[in-house]
Amino acid sequence: MNETWIALKELGENRMAAVGIVIIVFLVFVAFFAPFFSPHDPLEQNLEKRLLASNGEYPFGTDELGRCIFSRVMYGTRISLEIGVVVVGITALIGTILGVISGYYGGIVDEIIMRAVDVVLAFPGIILALVIAGLLGPGLFNVILALAVTHWPAYTRLVRGMTLSVKEKEFVEAARALRASNFYIMRRHILPNCINPVIVLATLGIAHTIIFAAALSFLGLGIQPPTPEWGSMLKAGIPYLRTAPFLTFFPGIMIMITVLAFNFLGDGLRDTLDPRAKEMIMMKK
Amino acid sequence: MLKYILKRLLLVFVVVLGVTVVTFSAMHLAPGDPAEMIAVARYGEDLTQEEIEWVRATEGLDAPVYIQYLGWLEHVLRLDLGKSLITYEDVLGEILTRIPATLVLAISSLILSLLIALPAGIISAIRKNTIVDNACMTGALLGVSMPNFWLGLLLIWLFALSLGLLPSFGYGSIKHLILPTITLGPSMSAITTRPTRSSMLDVLNQDYIVTAKAKGLDERTILLKHALKNAMLPVITFVGLQLGFLLGGAVIVETIFAWPGIGRLLVDSIYARDFALIQGCVLFIAVIFALANLAVDVLYAYLDPRIRYEKK
């Protein structure tokens, strides 16, 4: 517990990470309370008030169907965070388990898992996600599936490498001498030693996932209108780029801020949790 | 070395095979009847059941999935990627005509990204923990966080629609190349800046640099003659990684700027659900990506004598 506290304190002292946390907390707040604070229903159309610039009633203006952009951007926080957290949650879990198994048992199991990793990594991630989402058809579930398929190998590769080095340590040997089961060793001795880098990777992974999901929707292969989603809002704004550029400004800014916040936090976590980086700082002092 | 390359080539083969299996399965897990979708794409909505069945029979869609896959694979081994299901164009021919556009965009973006990343990374390393360093690293984070589809739209809005300086889409002249390059290049440079910096830092801490300093060589000579060469070696591997980013980015940038490259061909074929064309593009991109990564590794081994001797 004390250790966690020290890590949190260090994280708070890291300026970038602190900024990241503040923004993320704010975004989560927006996502939760969108129904209470949004001035309009995000789906409510008002064709008489199409493409209005920012004004008192509509802080960010209205879109091509007269919907409130401010409210839509607020609701958009929900779906982006949801996709980011769900995809990273699933893939970090599966990827980590496969990585531990692969590294611990080695042999044919390792060979099969690592070749599967090679197959997925042999392909630029966004393109594989694009093909899968495109073929399966649009929708939230297919977006999550497509992103999950492309995202897990990063964890497997990382955790496998760490498992390989941890399993040679004396405490693992000692546990084995005490006839601890393989499952117990993996759970109690190997996993806790891999968890920090996984947390760093997962935080950066949320940033990646949110950008990829928005890209899929932007190409029309992800979340479909009228659902308020930043990527599909950008796509809808293209025909009005000349006359009403604010249609594309706000969703884009939101994507960027969100992704930046997770990147800031991930970077800060790397500095705090990565013992090698910490040692270097201590040597400097 | 030759043995190493052959082993890697075998792996490339296995991996590419795996990629095609994944896309082939996705195609057949896709909702809807492929025969009907192809028929609709070709002949419009008004269809009888017989017409759909006819498409199914002529395209071999009535065979079990693995038979279809093996049939396709057999043709691929004879360098025949089949014909587009909708336009009847030869898939390989179609892909080959799209290569130059993607290649031009890729090379110009790569050059721009290196022109930004290398100086930024080197300067950050030399002026470690100063304002310059922090600015470069924050800039790199901004670059990674900027969605390139949004950057593309902003550039079109500013330079094409508002200022009227550059064309907003199309292909052909240098002017057409500028906006797509600026969309893709800087965000790519964001990926290379950090490794360049840490590689340079590593080298600057080596004993031989300290020796050179002790000899009283001026900083310029130390950096240019002693540090830079060694620091650039690991960066080469990141250029290989960038290639994946480049291909992925090309899909989006080519779509925004109506750039007639492979990325746009892939997206269009997904929209049209032209399975033959999708499968062809996927195969082609996988092979290119795998071979390019192999080339980068071989080049790295060739340039770094330490690795060359180990491999022997």
Shape of chain A: elongated
The amount of beta strand of chain B, in percent, is under 5%
**Largest sheet geometry of chain B:** none
**CATH class type of chain A:** Mainly Alpha
Overall mean pLDDT score of chain A?
87
**Secondary structure category of chain B:** mainly alpha
Corresponding CATH architecture of chain A: Orthogonal Bundle
The total of helices of chain A stands at 12
Instruction: Summarize the helix and strand pattern of chain B as letters.
Output: HHHHHHHHHHHHH
| Global outline of chain B | globular
DSSP strand count of chain B: 0
Oligomer: heterodimer
Task: Flag low-confidence runs of chain A.
Answer: 279-285
Note the total helix count of chain B.
Answer: 13
Please tell me about this protein's structure.
- The complex is a heterodimer of chains A (285) and B (312).
- Chain A has 285 residues and is mainly alpha-helical.
- Chain A has 12 helices and no strands.
- In chain A, helix 3 runs parallel beside helix 7 and helix 8 crosses helix 9.
- Chain B is mostly helical.
- Among the domains of chain B are: 2-77, no CATH class; 100-196 and 234-271, no CATH class.
- Chain B has 13 helices and no strands.
- Chain B has helices at residues 2-29, 34-43, 49-58, 65-77, 91-126, 131-145, 148-162, 174-204, 207-214, 219-256, 262-272, 275-303, 305-311.
- In chain B, helix 5 (91-126) packs antiparallel against helix 6 (131-145), helix 7 packs across helix 8 and helix 10 packs antiparallel against helix 12 (275-303).
What's the short story on this structure?
The complex is a heterodimer of chains A (285) and B (312). With 285 residues, chain A is mostly helical. Chain A has helices at 2-13, 15-37, 69-105, 107-121, 125-136, 140-151, 153-166, 170-177, 182-218, 230-237, 246-273, 275-284.
